[in-house]
Each structure stands twice: as structure tokens, then as C-alpha cells.
Automatic annotation (TrEMBL):
Record-listed E.C. numbers: 6.1.1.19
Keyword ATP-binding tagged: yes
Annotated family: Belongs to the class-I aminoacyl-tRNA synthetase family.
Main enzyme class: ligase
Alphabetical list of Pfam families matching this protein: Arg_tRNA_synt_N, DALR_1, tRNA-synt_1d
Source species of the chain: Candidatus Nomurabacteria bacterium GW2011_GWA2_41_25
GO CC aspect terms: cytoplasm
InterPro entries membership: Arg-tRNA-ligase, Arg-tRNA-synth_N, Arg-tRNA-synth_N_sf, ArgRS_core, DALR_anticod-bd, Rossmann-like_a/b/a_fold, tRNAsynth_Ia_anticodon-bd
Keyword check for Protein biosynthesis: yes
The reaction(s) this protein catalyses: tRNA(Arg) + L-arginine + ATP = L-arginyl-tRNA(Arg) + AMP + diphosphate
Official protein name in the record: Arginine--tRNA ligase
SMART domains linked: Arg_tRNA_synt_N, DALR_1
Organism lineage: Bacteria, Candidatus Nomuraibacteriota
Amino acid sequence: MIEEKIKKLIKEALKNLNIESGNFSVEHPADLTMGDYSTNVAKLANVKKLETKNKRFTREEVADMIGGFINRNKPKEIEKVEEKAGFINFYLSRKFFAGSIEEIVNKANNVGKNDILSGKKIMVEYTDPNPFKPFHIGHLMTNAIGESIARILEHSGAAVARANYQGDIGLHVAKAIWGLLKNEKLQNKSGSHNLQATNIGQAYMHGAEAYENDEDSKKEIEEINKKIYARNDKKINEIYQWGFDVTMEAFEDLYKMLGTKFDFYFLESAMADIGRDIVNANMDKVFEESDGATVFKAEKHDPKLHTRVFITSAGLPTYETKELGLTEEKFKTNPEMDLSIMITANEQMNYMRVVAKAISLIHPDFEKRMKHITHGMMRFVGDKMSSRKGNVITGESLLNDARDAILEKMTDREFPNEEREKIASDVGVAAIKYSILKQSTGGDIIYDFENSISFEGDSGPYLQYSCARANSVLEKAQKENILPDFEVLPGEIFEVEKLLYRFPEIVFRSASEYEPHFIANYLIEVARAYNSFYGNTVIVNKEDKTSPYKIALTYAFSFVMKTGLHLLGIEAPVKM
RNA sequence: GCCCUUGUAGUUCAAUGGAUAGAACGAAGCUCUUCUAAGGCUUUGAUGUAGGUUCGAUUCCUACCAAGGGCACCA
């Protein structure tokens, strides 16, 4: 590693010059014009030993001394070393960059892999849509983040299991079933799955509204809720089964479009009893009775936490209890699991902490093996609450609208129809996923429909487009029979080369911090650099002796871009 | 009231305690007889307020102001 080499070099310089320095850093400067690596060693240096009454050293002078030593002893990877404003900047050599490009070409689609998590078993739970409710854009958000984190962890050597936890039971189901019973037309059994799912969504919304505004309806819904738990009403059981199947199938179509394949499906209904048993077994130890309900007074263990109900006074287990069961079940089905990651919205954070506290009292060994990652919400800008077709925006409608918008854009390009559909779908997914993943995970996303399916500038399609252009360069190179090679190097070092070799560092950081946006931001930078290179250079040119190297560079770019997009959960169409 | 997030160009987002705070959208101009113009090249603009720590603070600490979320039978 070149970074290690530079550090070693600095230490040698300090030793030889008899200078002491603290814990200096070696990092990439913000600006490429300031070199490839930079160190603050001179700023932290203590040169009192060398100073006399008449001579005091400035930081610039110290930097010059250290830089001078390194210049005299530099290895072939380093072109020059410069002092600027007290920093020492390292410029890497043409040879170094050519070597790094060759390395990427050799690694091909394995570029950026590391083994920090090698041998680790990790489960990532995400998406978690509820049957009988629409797949809304929040689910799209959790899915985009979860799938990306899962892939990043895989690229770091972990064996990742994808899990989906679905709320197939609870008041929301009762609301939807109440709506379906009141309006049988909504039980459209002939249409497509998507349509049926939408109708169930409508039924849910009727039920939710009635529950809020009408006392009698509220009572009816609560009755239905009890019957769903008890499974003792034939008609309700039938509607339940139908609605459950329809929504699950519709969700499965969406997962396919989004590029997610789950290994485990956990259902809330199955967790209720497991959780209840845990609560019963830990009565008085962890849980206590209060106003007829079973609660956990978390503030007794941590003043920042609060009391939560686990079993209601009506005897029904709450989400907290089911969560307890889910955790137990996850570790039971995967006893060697090293880490269980859960991805949900921020609003879940505070009560998940309470649940986590309860779990830590019951299973102290689980505590360190659980991680909760939360993301912000999709917030709408202005009153653009509706999609292109005037419907309320759901995750489903957004995906469809994005795809349609791309199809319009593609009318003047020639593709077979089947291919066209697939490309439009992949580009639409890229637009939406990228708009979610480009920013850090915790914050809200101010949601603008037009913006989220934009194809220009800072967007997913821009990345795909750069990749497609690189592909067509490579196709042309093949036709003209020019093979990639590293013999004759151009004099100029292109910006894109200065970025490509950093890809593994970016993956490493994303994996360490569970943050996809580092990759998203990096890819934009690389794409811009490549597009600039592409725009200002004729790459495939028989007259140009450096053309084989430029083609190799294009290969390296396409491998990094394709792999990076994969880590974001985005497909890279060969053509678009 | 208490707890958790978050305050950066007109807008939406970046910036492991470092240099001249980066992009994109928007706006103005240029650019396809060259491998995909969904592109490239110019120009324009910002750290909520007040302190503190530090050689150095958008970043860490304190207070205030503002926005969002959570605080008992919903998830």
C-alpha cells in the first residue's frame, strides 16, 4: 500500500532529521491539484531540539526540511514532494497510476473487495412492508439502503442473509379487512396483482379513516382484530388469506424489479406467541404489571429511556413483544450469526432502544450482536403529493412513473421492445435509488418527484450513461482490434486515474460506517472525470500509440463503475 | 417539559479537526464532419446565533434560536 509507504518514509525523515512529531495523518487532499497524498506532520512537529536562541523554525521551514529529505529518498511511485502552507504534498508518478490501472483491469469485477468481514455471518433486515397496506415510498427507501448495505458487507467478505419482517397481523390488517367487508367491490379478484394490491390499500385507508372518526366502526374494527388473532371466523379467515396472498405476490414483483432476493421471511403473527412466552418467563425480573397491562419500565435502567407497553390490558401483544420474539427467532434460526442488523425509519429509534434494553436484560450475549440503523423520512416538497397520473404516490406508482418517463426519453433510440422495457425499468430504479443513497442515511429526504426521476447531473442514470458510453468505446476498440496495454504511456496523468485507485478505500469506509453514500458520491466524481476524459480525448485511435493504454483505462473505469453501481443495488445496462 | 435527529449557495445534497468549504439543479454563454449531447467547457453564489477547546472548527463542547421525530396499551 502506497499510503503505508509514505508513512514509513515520513517516519524515516523524522528520525534522520532528529525531529519529533505527534500522531500525524496521511490523507488525500480535498483538491487534486494539491497532490495525491498530503500530511500535516510539519504542523505537529516539535523542533525545539534544533532551535537556538537566534533561530526559530516556522512550520513552512519544517515542512521544507522533511519534504526535502523525502525528495532525496523517494521511491519510484512518487514523482515529487512539495511544501505548501505547512503541509507536505505527495504527487504520485505516471508509473504508479499505470500500475494501479493494470491492477484494476486484472481484478475486473472483484475490484474493491476486502476481507475485513471475512468469515462473518450477518443478517440484514430491511424493507418490512405490511400485507394489506400499500408499498409506500418509505419502504422503497428502506429497501434501497438495506440492499446496498447488504451488498457492501458482502464485498467486504461477509456472508449476508437478507431478511424481511412483515406485519401480517395487527390493527392495520383489521382496518383493511373492515374496509373490504364494507365494500366488496374492492375485493377485485380478476385484475392484476398490482391493481388488487392498490384496492386493498384503498380498503385500508377507508378503515383507518373510520377508526379515527367513528366510534361504532372503531369497535367493529377492534372486534375484527380479535377474530384475526383467534382465527375463529371463517369469512374473515378467507378474506385474510386472499388479501395476504395478493399483497405478498405484488411485493415479490417489486423486489424483483428492485434487485432484492430475501433469504428469510419473518411474519409478525408467528412472533407474537414467542414474544409472549419471553415476557411471561421474565415477569417481575424485567416486566411488571401496570394498569392491567404488562410494561417494561426502561427508565429504571437508563434515565434516557421510557416505559413501554408489551402486553395490552386487552391481553394482546404489542409490536415490542413481537420484536422480542423476532430477535429470539433470528438467533435461533442462525445460531452462529455474528451480527444482526435492522434498518428502519428514525421514528422507530426511540422505542427500539427500549426494546433493545429489554433484550439486553434477557440475553446479555445478544446486545453486542445487534445493530439498529435508522434512516430519515421522505418528506414532500410543496403539495406535489400526487404522481404523474394524479394518484397518491406509492412506491409502486413511483417506480412505474419513473420507468414511463425513461421510455419517453428513449423513443428516439433504437432497441428491441423487450430490451427497451428492461432498460427503462433499470434506469428508473437507478434514478430513485440514487436519489435516496446519495445522501447520508440518517437525514430526511426532501422529496421532489421530478427531481427523483431526473436523468441529468447528479443522478443514477448519469452513472449508468457514463458506463454505457465506456462500453461503446470498448466495443469500438474490439472492432478495430486494439487491445488494452500498458507499454506506451501518455505523458499526461488524467484526473480519472487519480480517482480510480481510491475505490477500495471508499468501499472500506462504506462498510465500516454502514454508509452507501460514500460510494454514491465517489462514483459521481469518477464518472465526471471519465466523461471529461472522454469529451477531450479520442480514445480509440490507430494512429495514437497510447490508445491501448487509454482503452485499458476505459476498462478500469467500467469495472469500477459497474461494481460501484452493484454496491448501490443498481444495474448497469450495457446500452441505454 | 424530557429524550433523539438535523441546521452549509435561491433549491437539494457533500466535506475521516486541516489548505481557496465541493457537486448538482436553477440562471447566462459556448460545444456534435470524433467512440451515445442522458455528454463536455466557461461564468455566477453558502457554514442559524453567541461563547469555549485547538497551531487550526462546517466538524468537538456549552447555551440559545429553528425544523422534524419520540415520550403507556398503534406500528
